[in-house]
Amino acid sequence: MPNNMESDLSRFRKIVRGKIKQELRRFIANGELIGRQGKKSVSIPLPRIDLPRFQFGSGEGSGVGQGKGDVGDDVGQGQPQPGKGEAGEGEGQHSLEVDVSLEELASLLSEELELPNIENKGKKSIESSQNKYTGIVNQGPEALRHFKRTYREALKRTIAIGGYDPENPLIIPIKEDKRYRSFKVTEKPIANAVIIYMMDVSGSMGDEQKEIVRLTSFWLDTWLQSQYEGMERRYIIHDATAREVDQNTFYRTRESGGTLISSAYRLALKIIEDSYPLEEWNIYLFHFSDGDNWSGNDTNDCMKMLESQIMTRANLFCYGQVESRYGSGQFLKDLEKHFGSDHDKLTLAQIKDRDSIMDALKTFLGKGK
Amino acid sequence: MYIKTALPPDLREVVDKLEAAARKAGLDFFPTIFELIDYNQLAEVASYGGFPTRYPHWKFGMEYDKIAKSYEYGLSIIYEMVINNNPCYAYLLRANSMVYQKTVIAHVLGHCDFFKNNYYFSHTNRKMLDQMANHASFVRRAINEIGQDTVETFLDVVLSIENLIDIASPYRAPVTKTDRDGLGHDATVHVPKIETKAYLDSYINPKTFIAEQKDRLEKEQKKAKNFPETPQRDVLKFLIDHAPLAAWQTKIIEIIRDESYYFAPQGQTKILNEGWATYWHSMMMEELCPLHESEIVDYCEHYSKVVATAPGGFNPYKIGVELLRHVERRWDRGQFGLEYLKCDDYKKRAEWDTKAGLGRKKLFEVRSVHNDITFIDEYLDEDFCHEHKMFIYDYDKKTGKQVISSRDFKSIKHQLLQQLTNFGQPIIAVVDGNYKNRGELLLSHEHNGVDLKQDFTMETLKNIYAIWGRPVYLETVIEEVKRIVSFDGRNHDVQKS
What is the pLDDT of residue B113? Predict the structure, then answer.
């Protein structure tokens, strides 16, 4: 029986992985992957990977069939028969669905964006060691003896020396036959992370803007999830007042009216103080807005809050400004003026359109915080 | 690890019984070795085209992924796999119920008989299992010595033109080369004249005639200078002979070409081969070696799955077996010969019965001498077409759907034959290996109404360039205009020809 399938298969998987990487920018921009994620993996539709050859085009989809019906009747998408390549294979169909774990996807993302791994906050309590049984060795304590492997070794040896009798299949393992499980101690950060998403839902934020926020958040989630064992997400929407909502509402709500950004920051601060003590949590704040704030006074409030309370607690505060027809984009400039452009804990990004999501991700996550 | 694949005694008994019944009915097959394997293994073997020992390549991994997934999702299942070899090897799925095993064994024996006796298989290598293993070990050695990536890239390139062979060539007598003048002094053409007196010359050797002769001779001479002399459809062979390749590369093309020729007859006889096997498995299960009554329902279910045709679909099993039965019925009732063919009274034809009883004999003849094209061409008649409600469908631009476009017998047959021509592959030949007198390569596509898939064509040209090393051109027709598509190492180009 063939035993080279494994290598052919892994070779194929490598090619698939390369393809995904190639297409990653497109996936990020068009949001095709969202809604396709299960608990641990995403199923990715890829164009068929195939060796090119001279072959007939779809031939306008003509062919020979069998069955009832008059001339002009719809034949009803018959199953193309195997081996008969002629019948309707639509162009550009996704014929390959690959399941990729979120972890794998994050690592592809990080390769493509050259993201650094996140440095932990460096507290003693956040590391824990864990034993993982990963291999087989020849020596070890009896308690860890791997019965099946040991038996197999003994059986092999018995057959090899010609001592195997099918009538009386007696196998006696000797010391050399014994196999033991071996374990590796892995250091696992038990640190938890919380992401607080804040979004401006005032009248000027349209559907396209929200879609961009949604796409950006999906990839942020994917990346941060790969970095932290337990991760929580909280969502805040605001116009002139802020409130906490669930994920679904976060993306769907559209309100109208003015904008007081400080209301959102105040609520975020309250959430942090109530449920996420600094010593145990890595805190990320992402704020998306079109950059319009109601008044200069409120902006001043925001700056103060950020400087004295939020920045001191958070790993990272990211502000993403989505371009909209009505927004002035002032807030980004204010932030830049106040904190300077290379502040340690602040990242600013302008997301013009879907294509620049990728760059925004790189700016947000490139600091390795 | 060793997995027992030998048949258990109860299955062994079934095989012996069925083999005896088959031989008694006149089937004649190589010794057949049945192996019992589980689905994973069957999926692996199937991915390798039936040969457990193929060269390593990712496309087999892709195939496996596809087969394993469609099994997992319950979309399709492979019941058996049989390979043309002496002895024949057949793989049975361990999980099959006994009824299925019986049916499958009978079906396999039909294939084995076909492999052995059909003319189109007569040139195939009957020790292909060993040959494939040799191929595999060469490729492995090349990988070890030259490097995985280099060899794999070259395999990708060659596999992309593996269909460019001349399927008729194994059945042609080898062309003996006419003596060629090695020096090639071809500067002027000398037209032989009839010697005569000067004043008669213009009458005996009229000027127009001499000019015509000169023209003809010049053309002939030019033809002799053509390289290749006549268009060569075995593009792989041409590349082996003339492309600037390293020894290992030549060997790899030879390997791929060898395997292409081995598999080609299976592509040429899909309908007839499956029809023949289905004919015999139903014959054996129902008459020669009848099933127990408790097994009938399961058998019927299986049989109906085999010959099921999706609405608008085309099932080679179904058409094959029905057409064979049609032939059997006709020859049993003497519905052949001039008298019958001339008769155009529908009723009389339908009731025609001379009690000739030649059906079975005729079938054995059909399985020996025909391939799909000649089989359809010879026996698919108007009666059959009506009886089986055949039609052609076409893509309707208005509705974006495929609709039935005709039930006309002639058009149906024409379409079917065209689909089967060159086992469904476009006909491509090397026309000029010294195109533009610059060592460039000109290929020509014999267009028969269907355009080539464009993106693939471009990529394939790129691959041929990788082998030939000089610009490559392809004459074809795109949207009813003659074009030359080319790749010069950097850019693709499409020009009017």
Answer: 97
Cα-based distances in Å from A93 to A24, A52, A96, B66, B452: 18, 16, 9, 15, 18
Partner residue opposite A86 with nearest CB, options B5, B45, B419: B419
- Quick check: B459 and A52 CB within 8 A? yes
For tokens 């002799």, name the residue. B224
Q: Tell me which residue in B160, B309, B395 faces A51 most closely, judged by beta carbons.
A: B160
Least confident of B25-39, B101-115, B204-218, B359-373: B204-218
Residue A122 lies in a domain: no
Q: Which residue from B223, B234, B160, B155 is spatially nearest to B428, judged by alpha carbons?
A: B234
| Angle at B237 (CA atoms; ends B234, B238), nearest 5 degrees | 90
The answer on A259 and A174 residing in a single domain is no
pLDDT (tens digit, 9 = 90+) per residue, B53-95? 899 999 999 999 888 888 888 777 788 889 999 999 999 998 8
Is residue A271 located within the same domain as residue A154?
no
pLDDT per position as a tens digit, A227-283: 776 778 889 988 888 889 888 788 777 777 778 888 899 999 999 888 888 777 888
Considering the domain architecture, whether residues A109 and A138 belong to the same structural domain is answered as no
CB burial readout A130-145, b (16+ within 10 A) else e: eeeeeeeeeebeeeee
Give the number of domains in chain B.
5
Domain membership of residue B225 (yes or no) is yes
**Phi/psi zone of residue B246: left (φ > 0), alpha (ψ -120 to 50 degrees), beta?**
beta
Closest CA–CA distance from residue A160 to any residue of chain B (Å): 14
Among the candidates B420, B447, B475, a domain finishes at: B420
Q: What CA–CA distances, in Å, run from A181 to A130, A133, B56, B238?
A: 15, 6, 33, 58
pLDDT given for residue B482 in this prediction: 93
Question: Closest Cα of chain B to A158: distance in Å?
Answer: 15
What's the CA gap between B36 and B92, in Å, rounded? 5
Give the pLDDT band (50/70/90) at residue B445.
very high
Distance CA A204, CA B176 (A): 83
- Asked casually if ipTM beats, i.e. exceeds, 0.90, the reply is no
CA-angle at B90, arms to B21 and B316, nearest 5°: 80
The rounded mean pLDDT for chain A is 78
CB count in 10 Å sphere of residue A95:
14
Residue B475, H or E segment:
strand B472-478
Q: DSSP letters along A260-293, please?
A: -HHHHHHHHHHHHHHH--TTTEEEEEEEEE-S--
Give the nearest chain B residue to A91 (CA atoms).
Answer: B453
Asked, for residue A232, whether it belongs to a domain, the answer is yes
The residues, ordered by sequence, that sit 6+ positions from A172 with a Cβ below 8 Å of its Cβ are: A154, A158
Q: Report the predicted TM-score, pTM, of the whole model to 2 decimal places.
A: 0.75
By C-alpha distance, the chain A residue nearest B45 is A2
Q: Are residues A203 and A339 in the same domain?
A: yes
Q: Which tokens hold the place of A118?
A: 């996140």
The sheet with strand B88-93 has its strands ordered as: B32-37, B88-93, B80-83
